[in-house]
Every structure is written in C-alpha cells, then in structure tokens.
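Q: Could you write out the predicted structure for this multi-component system? I'm mainly interested in how the pieces pack against one another.
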Amino acid sequence: MKRLFLLGLVLLATATTYAGGYRVSLQGQRGLAMGHTGVAVVNNAELAFFNPAGLVFLENKINVAVGASAVFSDVVWQNEEFGQTARTDSPVGTPFYAYFSYKLSEKFSVGLAAYTPYGSSVAWEKDWAGSHLVNDIELAAIYVQALASYKITDNLSVGGGPIYVSGSVNFNRNLNRTLTDLDGDRANVTIDASGVSAWGWSAGAMWRPIDSLTIGVNYRSEILVEAESGDADFENIPNSPLTPFSDTQFDATLPLPAELTIGASYQLNDQWLFAFDYNRTFWDVYESLDVDWANPNIPDSKNPRNYKDASIYRFGLQYAANETFVLRAGYYFDESPVQSGYFAPETPRNDSNNFTGGLTVNVTDKIAIDASFLYSRFKDIDESYDYYQENGQNVPFEGTYKSSAFVPGLGVTIKI
Amino acid sequence: MKNYYKYIAILALGVVSCEPELENAIEDGEVYSNGQADFSNYVAVGNSLTAGYADGALYITGQENSYPNILAQKFAVTQQTDGFTQPLMNDNAGGLLLGGTQITQNRFVLAVGANGQPRPARYGGAAPTTDITNKLSGSFNNMGVPGAKSYHLVAPGYGNVAGVPSGLANPYFARFASADNATVLADALAQDPTFFTLWIGNNDVLGYATSGGTGEFQLGNTDFASYGANDITDPTAFSMVYGQIAGALAQTADGVLLTIPDVTSAPYFTTVPNNALALDAATAAQLTGYFQAVAGVFAGGLMAQGVPAEQAQALASQYAIQFNEGPNRFLIDVPVTQANPLGFRQMTENELLLLTIDQTALAGGYGSVQLTQEVGEVLAILQAGGSPTPEQAQILFGAVSGIDDKDALDSEELQYISQATNLFNDAIEANAETLGLGLVDVNETLSQLKDQGIPFDGGVITSDFVTGGAFSLDGIHLTPRGYAVIANEIITEINATYGSNVPKADVGSYGTVTLSQDVQ
C-alpha cells in the first residue's frame, strides 16, 4: 500500500503533454502510461506501433490491443495591448488504435495495425481576434499498416511494414481582418478534403543483450498528404467585382513528418521496469502551408511555418503490484517544432512537460483492461505569428498563449 | 485498494475541469485599471459622429463600431460595468421611414460603375425598415443624435415625432426620446452617468460648410430660433450653451470633451481639386484668347459709356485670365459688385470644391466656358477686327459658366468657418479646464490624418477619399477604423487625466468601406 501511495505521488508530480505540432502521441495505453515509451518494451500488441521488431518476442500466439483516448485540450490567448482574450472550445478528440499480431513460428510474427499518430482539433471563437489565421481546424490521419517481425537470433529481431494513410482536413479562417458582406458578416473560407490517401512505411529492430535489458530503434517514414481538388467554400463575400473570391477547388500538401525513436528498457526485478525513449521528429519538412486555388483570380495562400526538427525525451516506469494490478507512471519533455515568430494559433504549442500514469487490471489470464491518463503542462508564452500579410506588409499576430491538455484513455489487451 | 481508485478518480476529475489559466489574466481583472475614473455607467453625448453614423446613414454595423461602443468594450476590461446600450437601427440599409414613407436616404456602398471605376452609390439591395414611429423603450448610453447642433441638445421637443416633418424635431432622437418634450441632455442626465464623453458643435459649422456656405454666419445673434439649418452658430451663444451642457454632465461624472475638427480636413471638401481643369495647349490658348476677348469687349463697353480708358482697362484686366497647358483652376461665380461687375473669377489656391459637385457638368464646361457655336461666331467677328453688337457681347459674357455658391467654399466662407471653429474650440477648451475634464483635440488628430496619415500595423490611415481608410463614403463621417482612431485618442487622454490603464483598440481589425453592387 505504501508503494502504491509513493507511485501516486510520482503521478502527481509529473505531468505529460502530447506532442508538439500536430503529432498526437497516444498510440497505446500501456506505453502512454509510461510516458509514451515503448520502443524497447515487450509488453503487448502496442509494439505494432512502437517497434514491430518486438512483436516476435511476445509470448502468446495471438495478441490484440485496442483502445481509444479522449483528448480534452484547450488554449487561452490574450493580447494586453488591446485587452483581447479568446479561448478555444475544441471538440473532444478521440484518437484510437487497434493492433493485432499472430505468431506463425518462434522466429516469425505477422501483424496488422491501425492508429492515428497525427491530428489536430482546434476551434476558436468564431471571428476572434486571430480569425484571419484560423477559426477552426480538424486534421485527421488514419494509418493502417501490415507488419512482419522476424527474429534473426534469439536476442535480435527486426520488423516493419508498409503504411497506408487516409487523411482529411477541414479548415476555416476569415479571409482577412476586415472584409465583410453588407451585414458585417466576416468573409471566410472553408477548405475541406477527405479520403486523401498516401503511403509510407516503418521499420525497427530490437536487441536483448541480456535478459533484463532491451534496446530498440524504430523509424517511421515521412508521408506527404497531398490534397487535390478539395472543396473551397467562400462565405459572406460581398457582391462586388472588387473581390476575387468565389467557391473553387484547391490543392495543398500537408507533411506528416518522419520519426526516429531509440530507447531502452531495464527489468530491475519481477516488479519494476524502467524505460527510456528518445524521439526525433523531422519537422523541417513543414516549411509552409500553401493553398493553391483552382480559380486563377484568387491569389494563392502562402503561410510560412518553418518548423524545425524536434526531440522528445520520455521516461517510464512500471510496477507489477500483484497478479491483478500493474501500475505505471511516466514523464516526457516535448520540444516544440514551432519557432519564435511562427507561432500560429492553429497549433499553438510551446515546449511542454508531460505527466502520465495508468494501470492494467488483469481480468483473466487472457484479458486485461488498460487505463491511462496524460496531463500536459505548458507555461505561459508570449509569442507571435509574423508572416500574415496585408497589402504586402507583414502584420504580426501577437499575444500570450497557454495550452493545457488532459487525456484519459482506455484499452483492452488480449493474449491467446 | 479502493482508496487508490478514489485518488485516481479525484485526480482525473480535477484535471478535466481545469481550463488553461494565464498568470495575469485579463479575464480575472488583473491587467488593467480604471484609475480615478468610474466607467460603470458611461454615457456618450453628441451628434452623428457619436452615433456611429457613416456612409451617409445610420445602420447597425456602423453603430456597433461607434467610438463610444469601442470605448465601452475597453472600459469593460478595467472594471465591472453596467453594459452599453445603443438605439440600434433595424437594418444595415440605413434609411429612415416616417409612417412607411422614406425620409432619409440609404447608406452608400462602394460599387463599380459602368466605366469600371469604383464610386460610392446608394445601397439598393433592401428597403429600409427603421420606422421612427416605432419608439424604442428604455434608456440608451449612446446619446449621439445625427444632425444635432449644440443648442439642439437642450431643446425640448427635439424628439417629438410630430415635429419631424416640419424640421422642428430630429427623426433619430424621435425614436428614443423618453418623452415628446424631452431634451437630449435631460435624457442623458437621467441615466446618472458616472463617466461621459461630449462631442458636440460640429454641425454648428458643418451645415454651413456642406451647403457651400449658402447660410449665414449668425455672429452676434443669440436667438437660436431664428437660425436656418445652414447657418453658423454665434460663437458667444455656442459658448453659453456648451457650458450649460458640459457643466450639467460634469456635476456628477468625470469625462472627456472633444474639439471640433476643421472642416477642411474632411474629404468632402478636399477630394475634388480646384484645379482639375485639365487643358491641352490648343484649348488653353483658345480659352486665353476667349478671355482676352471678354476683357477687350468689356473695356470697350465701359469706354463707350464714357469711362476713362485707363480705368476701364484696369477693371477689365481681371477678366483676361491666362490658361496654361495642364491643370488650371476653375472659375466660380461671385456676387456682382462694382469691383467685379461680371460676377465671376478664377478660384484661388485655398478655395474648395465640394464632393457632391456634378462631375459630368465639370467635364462639360461647368467651371470654365461653354464654347458654343454662337460664341465662336462672336469670337470670329472679333478676330476679324470687327466690333460686336451689345447682344453679341452678352452672348460672349454669358458663355462663362462659373461654379455656383452651393458647390464651393470661397475664401470668405472659409474664413467664417475657420473663425467659428476656432472660437468653438476655445470654448470647449475653457470648459475642459474649468470643469477639470479631459480634452481630446480631434482637430489635431484629423489634421494629422490629412497631412501625413497615422501609421498602424497594416499600413497608414489617411483622409484620402475611399482609399485612405479613415473616412466613410459620405466624405464627412468616419469609418469603423477612423472611429477606432478617435477612440484611441480618447483612451490616451483618459489614461493621462484619470490615472487609469485602459487598453487601446486594434485599429487594423476595424474595417473601412463596404463593397456592394446592389445599388440604386
């Protein structure tokens, strides 16, 4: 009981966030409860995401892990010069995962995975002070992956497979700071594209030099989601030849960056496991969000982003209390890919400290319930987005931001 | 074990309900202060500029961007306030109805004309729906009454709808006056304002200016009842009535007084240049020749009446106007006097033409000469060395088409305007000092807009018509962006006078002119 209490303190003391940019690190309740570590943790079918090389080390023939999280994430913004305040009222995000692996032989496993590593759901008050940058955005990408995991030697394995992505985006912003129709309703545009498909891959390796130590590496490739002929719906456009806006189609590319993870886990004894992961997300690819309108009269929308590669440092521990309960806690530090002066309110993320916790209840030998939570702690940050232009002149959008995120999650693990 | 679940549950609930909170949150009242002022019940008193009038009409979105409404929104982040109510119109078309009949015009919008050029036109996309016989109930913090002069604020019956057709009452005030015999000032005072702004007096000179100076300067006449709509109020009478209004408001409330801008800072008076008579070399020579002929014939006529040659030529020489290739100043009609028997002259550098002048007529010779065939025949006679008959001389003189009084402000009229404006502003400044109130020199602000513009994060706001951003399409009233500039000047003055910290308005987020092709 005393140990449980101590673990509780660790949970309270550490906070976790979810990742910078529009990366959503919620790909398994067990991993997440341990700071979203897992590249070197052989635990359950979550390995399909964290490191497919490890699937072959799972003891059971059939492994299933499914789960979902509820993302409660909001942002408050204020500008002291003008006395403005705004809050997001973002819908609850529900990223999910479903993993399955099947051991064909001692040396070879296959698997299937579906997960949602990228996404964003931000809804500001309509026509708020930054509405010329974003009113609301919904970004989702579902990854579906076939996997193979092969044991080269008793303590070394590799794994990987192709990824099919189906992406969607719905983004609304006002056209500028002032254009309205006669009744003062702000002119805005919604771009919408769904079912945009793309391909990628991931591959990993796992090495267990001694029984208690596992080392892993995993790489997920960059995937460019290229929306072609999506719908652009212009609303509240004044009836005038002096504005070029009318409903049209658009092309745009959103990169889902590559991610490299290296990590290790150490089994201290039957009860305690420690894990450490290092993530590098290759955000450099996200230089600019450019929207190319089919209607040639509408000037293309260029929105510099200038993201930079960013690192995440993850720590987790697991305590097997008894046959029924396994408790977990973790922490990660998430470096934001967003650079100063490029702080756009569609993904207003600064560096964050993230605290996780959770537990598994083994209902039977075969079925376990996995619960986790994540709390992301952001500091107040004074930032601006400097690259919005009016009449060829940069008009910075400035203010103090603070984000928060709390993400409870529930999953099931099945081992047969 | 059960306890442990409990902890998890409490922890989970605790964090879920936890919205992000900033350290110094505006929402928590931690950033600003009202200082010595109390903004809890702010009342704005004034005319169209206070009402949020723009584009030649009053309409909802204009009212929403009135400077008092902008101020009230900023006051509300410094302390608890009772809110700010305005007598909102019924629509965004802008015209007023009296018992179903339209009595004021719809707003202007910017429309592209048949020639492809954008120009202001009256909105015609929807019929106006604001009938002044539908009386609004309740009191209104925005006591801006379009058209009100200083003395109207203390005139009983100014809000009596029965007086509207005869011009004795104001249709805007008739909508929300508390009673038929109420005054604007009494209705303002009845609200027990804790803070006020007063911007009145513009119309005491503006009516004269927009009429092209067709009214009188009522210097020395303190009987308001005898004034016409286009007259300039006597400055002494203005000073008295202004002192009465400001004094009454200042008895219980702090506040800010605003000065009257010089009319010449508004694009209504500065957009049409007085030298827009663009001539090529041949036409210039033709016109010069014409006026030499006029001077010659006129001198000849005088001499025929026995005037000594030297004197006759001196008097006639004013009509030998020289025209040059390029821009030339227009001619205006002036009263016939002994010194100017033909009653016209060329405009001088500072004289102004009004925005409403007929541009088609200008292009057709209004402001210069209507060179008809008949005139050409007379000129031919003169060139051949012949002498015109008196009838032919009349044809010659009659071809001059000087600009009418109503379309221009001449130097004498401008002098009256300037004299009155200065005296009104002296009175306003004296009241601010005596009553210990804030003073905003709008005159200075608008000169700045006219001369070099006021920079903001998206460029520079200027007084240029349509494109400058400060003035609406009527050329006199401001755009939301222009009103935001005024609001910021008031905020600066409030912060300095009352030790408060009120945030500014972000002028770049306020719009300018509205586009529409739905025009009359």
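A: Regarding packing and overall arrangement: Residues 2-415 of chain A form a domain with the Porin fold (CATH 2.40.160.60).
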